[in-house]
TrEMBL record:
Name of the protein in question: 2-methylcitrate dehydratase
Pathway the protein contributes to: Carbohydrate metabolism; tricarboxylic acid cycle; isocitrate from oxaloacetate: step 1/2; Organic acid metabolism; propanoate degradation
Role according to the record: Involved in the catabolism of short chain fatty acids (SCFA) via the tricarboxylic acid (TCA)(acetyl degradation route) and via the 2-methylcitrate cycle I (propionate degradation route). Catalyzes the dehydration of 2-methylcitrate (2-MC) to yield the cis isomer of 2-methyl-aconitate. Could also catalyze the dehydration of citrate and the hydration of cis-aconitate.
GO MF assignments: 2-methylcitrate dehydratase activity; aconitate hydratase activity
SUPFAM superfamilies from the UniProt entry: 2-methylcitrate dehydratase PrpD
Protein origin, superkingdom: Bacteria
Protein source organism: Mycobacterium shimoidei
Reaction(s) catalysed (UniProt annotation): (2S,3S)-2-methylcitrate = 2-methyl-cis-aconitate + H2O; citrate = D-threo-isocitrate
Length: 501
């Protein structure tokens, strides 16, 4: 990897295009380096994972809303919308499918200086590949690039510290991935990256306080914007530049300011794109930093025994976990039984209490209103707090995969005064966890989440197609869609008409 120093430059400096981060990313995108076999295998795993969580979310209201919007934009040639037949405009298919992937907070994650859900790159790339008749092998190459860029940006540039939403790294990664997949030239990709970043910076209020359904729409919006940016760049339109380094650019006014220097790693010329292998999926439908605590709670419940005897529970964890999903956020909504599902899946006190009581986690039952209102749950929930532990913060930011950790140490104090402690560094499903996910687990996740809405024959057909995606020819990528039974879709919420009909 090459480490690039990125900082603000005055307009008078006339920073050469080749020295700008957007151009360096574009150079990575055009590098014809082959995709390693293990990278390709993981791309397929994540396509299966996305289909799994989309099936689980297909009847949710935000997903139905996005689907209805997309179905108003028929196009031929076009792309597919998850669950249904037909051909639709690629940017709207990406929109609908992106919301389905993100709605349950149940797909892959990468955490470093910034956090990300790099599986958000897959829906826009698949949609554009379908509309333009790209080959499956080019789709694989594009996804590998998109993962690489989003993860490398997350390693080098923290957004949340400055209250900028993490999808600001997604716009450039989608643009770069599309550039690779479509074999665009470096200058076109450079312009698309600049436009995509310029248009996808927003505050992270979408993940603060009472969290709304926009949490699912935000990455889909960034992906849709990136598709449109690539389209404009292909037609010869330019972007603001230098977009990161400019005197009035992103670093100067949205991030750490003109005196700060960011260190961004990117693959050297000829270096394979392997970043996807450093990301990890979820066994449980909740914010990633609650994955290990859920597994820890399941392990602790037998040692604790009677939960009525718990006086307090303190989770010692990283700064990020404490302030984003813990009591360090200062959000009273994280203790509100009437809070939205989006808020509860970002409430570590709620998640830990329910996992302790149930010994399991379910993407629907664990968030049901009656579950959140159970008196014994509310009582236990109020006893859970988080504190930052510098060692957990250090491990969170470690670049050594063997010590990088997203877990916590639990100190459970009983009414008797006895203290029970245990800790878990990574989730059981993490590559270094007790039960790491491989192809078998991804397939099982898909079948388990899809069986209630997708026929067995359709599940088998999809799994066959996706596992040979690199062999699919142009025009054949419609096989990557999953069709949901019509009687199942009939149970989706009724969506009022809007501007698009």
């Amino acid at each position: 990897m090459l480490i690039h120093s990125v900082r603000t430059h005055r307009s008078a400096d006339q920073l050469p295009r080749t020295e700008q981060l957007a151009y360096k990313i574009a150079q990575v995108a055009v590098d014809p380096v082959p995709v390693p076999a293990e990278t390709e295998a993981m791309v397929i795993n994540r396509m299966i994972d996305n289909a799994a969580v989309s099936a689980a979310a297909v009847l949710r209201r935000p997903v139905a809303t996005a689907r209805h919007q997309a179905l108003a934009h028929r196009a031929r040639p076009g792309a597919t919308v998850f669950g249904v037949d037909g051909s639709y405009s690629a940017e709207w298919a990406a929109w609908a499918n992106g919301v389905a992937v993100r709605e349950l907070d149940f797909h892959d994650t990468f955490l470093a200086a910034e956090y990300s859900h790099p599986g958000d790159n897959i829906p826009p790339l698949v949609a554009v590949a379908q509309q333009l008749g790209a080959r499956g092998s080019d789709l694989i190459r594009g996804v590998a690039t998109a993962y690489e860029i989003q993860i490398d940006l997350a390693r080098g540039i923290c957004l949340h510290e400055h209250k900028i939403d993490h999808v600001a790294h997604l716009g450039p990664s989608v643009a770069a991935g599309l550039g690779t997949m479509l074999r665009l030239d470096v200058d076109t990709i450079y312009q698309a990256i600049g436009q995509a970043l310029h248009l996808t910076t927003a505050t992270r209020q979408s993940r603060k306080g009472s969290i709304s359904s926009w949490k699912a729409f935000a990455p889909a919006h960034a992906a849709k914007v990136a598709i449109e940016a690539v389209d404009r760049a292909m037609r010869g339109e330019n972007s603001p530049a230098p977009i990161w380094e400019g005197e009035d650019g992103v670093i100067a006014w949205l991030l750490a300011g003109p005196e700060h220097v960011y260190q961004v790693p990117l693959p050297a010329p000829g270096e394979p794109k392997r970043a996807i292998l450093d990301s990890y999926t979820k066994e449980h439908s909740a914010e990633y930093q609650s994955q290990a605590p859920i597994d820890l709670a399941r392990r602790l419940r037998e040692r604790i025994g009677d939960l009525d005897q718990v006086a307090s529970i303190v989770l010692h964890t990283s700064h990020h976990t404490h302030v984003v999903i813990g009591t360090g956020s200062g959000d009273p909504q994280k203790f509100d039984p009437d809070a939205s599902r989006e808020t509860l899946d970002h409430s570590l006190p709620y998640i830990f209490a329910v996992a302790l009581q149930d010994g399991t986690w379910h993407h629907e039952h664990s968030y049901a209103p009656e579950r959140a209102h159970r008196p014994d749950t509310v009582e236990l929930w109020q006893k859970v707090s988080t504190v930052e532990d510098p060692e957990w913060t250090r491990r969170y930011h470690s670049i050594d995969p063997a010590e990088k950790a997203f877990g916590a140490r639990a100190e459970v104090t009983l009414k008797s005064g006895e203290v029970i402690t245990d800790e878990l560094a990574v989730a059981d499903a993490h590559p270094l966890g007790a039960r790491p996910f491989g192809r078998e687990q991804y397939v099982a996740k898909f079948n388990g989440l899809a069986e209630s809405v997708v026929d067995a024959a359709e599940r088998r057909r999809f799994l066959d197609a996706v596992q040979r995606v690199s062999d699919l020819k142009g025009g054949d990528l419609g096989a990557l869609n999953v069709r949901v039974r019509s009687e199942a879709l009939d149970k989706a919420p009724t969506i009022p008409s809007g501007i698009f009909r």
